Amino acid sequence: MAKKDRTTDAAQDKDREKWMARFQVRLAMQPGVDRAIVLQAVKEVTAHCAETGEHPRTAFGDPDAYAVQVAAQLVPEDRAARARRKNAVVDAFDSVRDAVGKIGGL
Questions:
Q1: How large a percentage of the chain has pLDDT more than 90?
Q2: Which of 23, 32, 69, 88 could covalently link to 79 via disulfide, CB atoms 3.0 to 4.6 Å apart?
Q3: pTM for this predicted structure
């Protein structure tokens, strides 16, 4: 019985780690999110789960959706808007560069 408990605990720990990793990546991808925001959010999730014993999925739901929610709460709207504009400019530049590269390759 003890071996089954360790196997179950290891599987739960791995699932928690996967949830946290996905949450961190998705949060970092949100416009205007910097390292400090990611660290703050991870600290809050970790503290909550340690205090309650809940799995992060049970407490916070889908890591992708929660990342969007946290970013909306922690990133000032003007900063997020600036980051979105910057990302749009970079994406447009990348598209032009790719198109020119294809033309040049013909």
A1: 54
A2: 32
A3: 0.68
